[in-house]
Design brief:
Length: 305
């Protein structure tokens, strides 16, 4: 009987404040969708870091005849065979190096034509203008400075380039976007909490006669508060369900179908469905607990039970 009464009171409360309940659902849905999106963005960035940092190389570019006249680092002329052998020997002795690959001028020219063959500049480039290089795979990508300090300024070396620096700029941009999403999410959560508290206040005021009678007949504080807390929890749960729907739909249409980024951007290792599905229980739990706790503290103040 008591459970039936509480459930009936929940239905009455939701119908009485239908507009505000709808506003709570929308604000909770948007804030939790942003919350889930920011978690997935963090997973995506970490996934990309693990994928790309494992593939990046440090490149030692060697001087050729073309840059010997224009680059001060190559003032002593193009790299010699003895210098190349010395550089390779020193690289193989270094404990931080996992693998060394040599790219000749012809191989560099071939790769350049594959990537930029359609550009007007490609027709003016000749193989002897390309640079030989050593591509070094490090055991730990963070140890780039060991290679840079050992080979920068050495005879025959034009420059030492770390691909990790390029990726760090990209990941910095992605992390900045993620923090911006979290800031918007925080604002939306504050708005949602304010709406929940206001909705509970209005609902409690509209039923002050019923709650007064319940006090007189000796109803417990929890029994009086339960319908209001459950109303907020139900509205939040609906919003959480909508947020989960947003995330699943976004993953389906943006990555798998529709935009199909997973097919168009083969270089990016996108997060899988397991990452999305593991976030849904957290979102649903938050959608219930957040409104319920907000309603509980609002009732303590405004109902004085």
């Amino acid at each position: 009987m008591r459970a039936q009464f509480v459930l009936s009171e929940i239905g009455v409360g939701l119908r009485r404040n239908l507009t505000m309940t709808f506003a709570v659902i929308v604000s909770v849905a948007l804030s939790l969708a942003l919350f889930g999106g920011s978690l997935l963005m963090s997973d995506q960035v970490n996934n990309m870091k693990g994928y790309w940092y494992d593939k990046i190389n440090v490149s030692i570019y060697l001087c050729n005849k073309s840059n010997a006249q224009s680059d001060p680092n190559c003032a002593k002329g193009a790299v010699t065979e003895d210098q190349k052998k010395t550089i390779l020997t020193d690289l193989n002795k270094m404990t931080v190096v996992q693998k060394v690959t040599h790219e000749s001028q012809d191989e560099a020219y071939k790769h350049y034509k594959e990537q930029f063959g359609d550009t007007p500049l490609a027709s003016t480039i000749t193989p002897d203008q390309m640079q030989e290089s050593y591509r070094i795979k490090l055991k730990n990508p963070e140890q780039y400075k060991v290679i840079a300090s050992a080979f920068n300024g050495r005879d025959g070396v034009q420059s030492v380039q770390d691909q990790k620096g390029i990726l760090d700029n990209l990941f910095g941009l992605l992390n900045g976007m993620n923090w911006a999403a979290r800031a918007v999410m925080s604002l939306m959560l504050v708005v949602a909490l304010m709406l929940i508290v206001n909705t509970v206040r209005v609902s409690a005021f509209s039923r002050r006669r019923e709650t007064g009678i319940m006090r007189l007949v000796g109803a417990s504080g929890f029994y009086i508060q339960a319908p209001f807390i459950m109303e907020a929890a139900v509205a939040g749960l609906i919003g959480g369900g909508v947020a989960c729907g947003f995330l699943v739909t976004a993953r389906y249409f943006i990555i798998d179908h529709g935009l199909a980024l997973s097919q168009k951007l083969n270089l990016i290792n996108f997060i899988g469905w397991d990452a999305v599905l593991t976030k849904l229980p957290l979102i649903l739990a938050t959608s219930v607990l957040m409104p319920a706790l907000a309603a509980f503290f609002a009732l303590r103040k405004y109902l004085k039970v």
